[in-house]
Structures are given as structure tokens and as C-alpha cells.
Design brief:
20 strands; rod-shaped; alpha+beta; about 575 residues; six-stranded antiparallel beta sheet; five-stranded antiparallel beta sheet; about 50% helix; about 20% strand
């Protein structure tokens, strides 16, 4: 015994209906799909551009640093040249110190530079800092540089030194002299560090960058901006790590990130340091990013407004279509509207066309319903007349049933054609073939049907269909279809405002006139003649029989049934 129906599998469950969303959602998604990649691409380009700008700034700072070092070296070289020239002047070589003091003091007036003599015992008794009468023998302060000059017998450049006499930070350049027959001397050239600061200030560095000239011991000789004071220790980079770099390097000091470029002089051993906070370099990128973000927000706001406006426009159009569809569903007429969106306007035109077709179809349906009622009345009358006339001509019940059944089938065939073609009307050729073919096939030899295309209204199709059936029945009994060699020719043509129709049978013996009128005669003379306002003529000849009909076109026109239905419905069915 079965345990009951199996449970429904999960896969066979009805899928949940998709949630409908407003068109604005899809427009927003479309806008995002278009904007987000553009913003990402812009950000990538911005990043690449910033990297390129950083490389340019790095090259600029490195080049400027080299230029400053070369400018300082040129000044020191100029000072060394001056010393070498002074060392060969006659007053010095001849030990005429008063003349030497006078000439050098005049040459270096207002330059901030001074010349002095150093003896091997590290004392000085001649200096242009004081007058000739104020000279005293004093120990020098920069013993290290003087000793190096005597030892190397070459020019020696000092680091930053605080002068005992000048009470300023100075830089000393010493030229050793070894005169013949006398003890060696060292000719010193002293210049204040502030003079080198002017050289640094003359350099063009971007905003936010600082420059400092640092000696071999890490003491600031000169600086520009906020680079520090002369004589202060340079703490940003340890002095033993100073040296030339191909580009900048990252430095972190006191919790702040810096970018620094260092260039070392081969002449003096001093190092030039240019540095700035990393934010100074990255600030353009940040500014560009915030500008891009602000522009993106404004663009997004503009897109939102445009999407909102477009969605409203589409929404109004869709609601208009919805209202038209509801009117169409209710059977009300709908006219195409001029919507601003081409696709929706196309749908509106389709709705208008559908409305017109529906109105026409409903009109046709109403007409067909009235036609059906009207035909039902007519057919009841025709069937009643058929039954009476068939009963009069039948001698037995089986004969009555057979004849009546054939006539009913003929009427049914005409009705089928009417239902198939509707208000378009029934083609005359098709009607005749449908009535004759059951008795004798229409093959173009025994039965010839010839005539132009002609449409019949419902009443004409019904009457002519019965007439063709009766004529075909007579042809089977004693006409063209009764024996071999018989032939039927049907033809029609337009003659003025009438249709001339000819039924011509040959190959048979014409029947004698019957003493009583049968149903066929009633159909041909009464219904064709009276109901269709036609003229009926019967001619008997040696070879057979010919029927001629002349029917007005107005009685056959398919539009006649529609235009005159009101009058037809008020007419007594028995008059047709």
C-alpha cells in the first residue's frame, strides 16, 4: 500500500517572482557603471601623473643642489686663486709687511674677507682685521687647519670656525709659503659664513624646501630659509652619513617624514643638504585628489539630477501607456500620443493600432451577432419552406427525407462559406463549386465554371447557393449529369449595373414541363427574382436547358448587408 504522495522536491517548487524595481534604479546603476570606471581611470592617471611630477621635482632638487655646491666651490676656488696671487706679491716675498698690509686692506675693503699670516708656532702677528699699529702676536684658533696646510704643503680649507678676534663664524682657507732662507709661513684667507649664505639664498628652490651647507663635522656653515643657524649642529642626518646621492632619500626625524637630497663637495668635503617634508611633495597629489573628489561629487550630483529627470519623463510616459492599456482592456478607444521617448511613442502607436483593430473587430463581432440572428430567422423560414416544398414533391417518406437532407446539406455548405469569410463576402466561384462538386466534380471538362471574381453578401450567397443546389439536383435527375456526354457550362459577366449569369446544360434531353411547381422553381423564380430583384429566364432547346439570370450588383454587394441591416431586420422573413 502506498504511503502517500512523495514530497515535492525543492527544485520543482515554483520560482519566486522577480522583484520589479523602478526604472530610476536601473538608470542609477547604468550611471554608476559609466562613472565608477571613469573615476578609477582618472585616479590611476592622477597617480601616474603625480609619480611623474615627483620624478621631475626630484631631478630639479638634485640638479639645484649640484649647482649650489658648484657655486660654493667656485667661490672657494676664487679665494684660493686670490691667495696664490697674494703669496707671490713683492711685499710679502720681501717681508715688507707694512706695505703688504696696506695693499691687501685696500683690496679687501668692504668684502667681509680678511687676510692674515700664520707662523709655524701657530701664532699670528699680521691681520687685515686690525690696523697696522694695533698688530699683536696672538695664538691662532684654527690650529688643525694650519697644521694640515704645513704638513701637506698644499691649500687647506677649514670647517666652520668661531673666530677669536671676529667673534663670528668664519671659514679659513690657508696657503702654505716656503720662502728661501726663511721659516715657512701660511697665508690665511678668512671669510664670514654669512657670505656663503647669500650664495644659498640665490638658489631657486621650490616652496617648502630648505638648504643647508654642512661641514665635515656636521656643523651648519650656511643655510637658507628655516635650514638652521650657522654654527648649529645639523641633526636631520648624521654627519657620517652625508654624501652625494643620485636622488632623494626618505628620512624620518622627530616623527615627521622628510625627503632629502645630499651633494658633497670634492674640494672642501662639505655637504649640501636640501630637504622638505614629504607632505610638501605629496600635497599636489592630495590637492588633485580632493579636486577630483569634489568634481566627482558635483558630476555625480548632476548625473543624479539628470537621471531623476529622465526617470520622471520615462515614468510619466510609462504611466501614460499604462492608462492607455487599461482603456484598451476596457474596450475604450485609444489614440496614439506623442511621447518624448521614441520607443514609448512606438508602443503608443501600436496600442492605437490595436485599439482601432479591436474597435473594428468588435464592430464586426456585433455585426456578425446581428447577422447570425438575422440568418437564423431566415434559415428557419427557408427550412420551413424547403420542408413544405419537399413534402409536396415527395411520394414517400424516404424520398422526402433524402431530398430534404440534401437540401439541408446544400444550405449548410453555403452557411460554412459565410462563416468562413465573414463580412468580406463569399466568392461566387467558390460558392458554385461547393454546391456542384458533390454531384459532379468540377474538372474543367464536364463542368466548366468561368467568370470574374465576385463577392456576394450573406443573403445573395444563401439564395444563389440554394439555386445552384436545385439546378445541380435537376441535372442529376434528367440533365447533364444524368448520362455520359453531358456537359455543364456556368458563366457570368458584368453588364452595366447587373450581373448576367448563365447556367447552360447540353448532352441531355430536356424534361417536359411539370404540371406543378417544385421547390427548385420556387427558389429560382420567387427567391432569386423577388429577394434579389433579379430577372429569371428559362430556355429549353434540343440539346438541353439554359437558365439566365440578371441580378443587380446592389443586391450582391457585401456592404449592402451591413448598410441595410436595420431595414432587413424590420422586414418580414416571409417576404424574402
Amino acid at each position: 500500500m502506498a504511503d502517500g504522495p512523495a514530497p515535492i522536491e525543492a527544485g520543482s517548487r515554483r520560482a519566486r517572482p522577480r522583484v520589479a524595481r523602478p526604472i530610476a534604479v536601473y538608470l542609477f546603476v547604468l550611471a554608476l557603471v559609466a562613472l565608477v570606471p571613469a573615476f578609477i581611470f582618472s585616479a590611476v592617471l592622477l597617480q601616474r601623473n603625480n609619480e611623474a611630477q615627483e620624478r621631475i621635482v626630484e631631478t630639479l632638487i638634485t640638479g639645484n643642489s649640484r649647482a649650489i655646491v658648484q657655486a660654493v666651490d667656485r667661490e672657494i676656488n676664487a679665494n684660493i686663486t686670490t691667495l696664490r696671487v697674494l703669496a707671490t706679491t713683492p711685499p710679502l716675498t720681501e717681508a715688507d709687511y707694512p706695505s703688504f698690509h696696506s695693499r691687501v686692506s685696500q683690496a679687501l675693503a668692504d668684502t667681509g674677507s680678511f687676510v692674515y699670516l700664520i707662523h709655524p708656532d701657530m701664532t699670528s702677528d699680521l691681520s687685515t682685521r686690525v690696523g697696522l699699529g694695533e698688530q699683536q702676536t696672538v695664538p691662532i684658533g684654527d690650529v688643525e687647519t694650519a697644521q694640515r696646510a704645513f704638513d701637506t704643503r698644499d691649500v687647506a680649507v677649514s670647517d666652520a670656525v668661531f673666530g677669536r678676534v671676529s667673534q663670528q663664524w668664519v671659514v679659513n682657507i690657508l696657503q702654505p709659503i716656503f720662502p728661501a732662507g726663511r721659516q715657512p709661513l701660511a697665508l690665511g684667507f678668512s671669510r664670514t659664513a654669512s657670505q656663503l649664505s647669500m650664495t644659498l639664498l640665490a638658489s631657486r628652490m621650490p616652496d617648502g624646501w630648505h638648504v643647508a651647507l654642512v661641514d665635515r663635522k656636521g656643523v651648519i656653515i650656511a643655510s637658507s630659509g628655516d635650514g638652521g643657524q650657522t654654527g648649529d649642529a645639523f641633526n636631520l642626518i648624521p654627519y657620517d652619513q652625508l654624501g652625494s646621492t643620485p636622488g632623494w632619500r626618505d628620512i624620518r626625524h622627530d616623527g615627521i617624514d622628510y625627503l632629502a637630497v645630499t651633494q658633497q663637495s670634492l674640494l672642501t668635503g662639505w655637504s649640501l643638504v636640501a630637504w622638505a617634508e614629504r607632505d610638501v611633495v605629496s600635497q599636489p597629489l592630495a590637492d588633485a585628489f580632493w579636486s577630483l573628489l569634489a568634481g566627482g561629487v558635483l558630476l555625480a550630483a548632476l548625473v543624479v539630477l539628470v537621471v531623476y529627470g529622465v526617470s520622471l519623463q520615462i515614468g510619466r510616459s510609462v504611466h501614460g501607456l499604462e492608462a492607455d492599456a487599461k482603456r484598451l482592456g476596457a474596450g475604450q478607444p485609444v489614440e496614439a500620443r506623442d511621447f518624448p521617448i521614441e520607443e514609448i511613442a512606438t508602443v503608443s502607436m501600436a496600442l492605437g493600432d490595436a485599439s482601432r483593430r479591436r474597435q473594428a473587430a468588435e464592430t464586426e463581432v456585433r455585426f456578425l451577432m446581428r447577422e447570425l440572428a438575422h440568418r437564423s430567422k431566415n434559415q428557419m423560414t427557408v427550412i420551413a419552406a424547403m420542408a413544405k416544398q419537399t413534402a409536396r414533391g415527395a411520394e414517400t417518406v424516404p424520398e422526402f427525407v433524402t431530398n430534404f437532407e440534401r437540401r439541408i446539406f446544400g444550405l449548410a455548405r453555403s452557411t460554412d462559406l459565410l462563416l468562413a469569410h465573414g463580412v468580406a463576402g463569399v466568392d461566387l466561384r467558390e460558392l458554385l463549386v461547393s454546391q456542384i462538386d458533390p454531384f459532379c466534380p468540377v474538372d474543367g471538362e464536364k463542368v466548366v465554371v468561368d467568370g470574374p471574381s465576385l463577392r456576394l453578401n450573406a443573403q445573395a450567397a444563401q439564395i444563389l447557393g440554394m439555386a445552384a443546389h436545385e439546378l445541380a439536383t435537376n441535372a442529376v435527375k434528367y440533365g447533364a449529369f444524368a448520362r455520359d456526354g453531358g456537359r455543364l457550362e456556368l458563366s457570368w459577366a458584368r453588364v452595366g449595373d447587373n450581373i448576367a449569369f448563365v447556367w447552360h446544360e447540353t448532352g441531355s434531353v430536356a424534361p417536359k414541363a411539370a404540371p406543378r411547381r417544385g421547390f427548385g422553381t420556387t427558389v429560382l423564380e420567387n427567391m432569386v427574382g423577388r429577394s434579389l430583384n433579379g430577372e429569371v429566364e428559362r430556355e429549353v432547346h434540343e440539346r438541353g436547358i439554359t437558365w439566365r439570370f440578371s441580378i443587380p450588383l446592389a443586391s450582391l454587394d457585401p456592404n449592402e448587408t451591413l448598410n441595410g441591416r436595420a431595414e432587413a431586420e424590420d422586414r418580414d422573413p416571409g417576404d424574402k
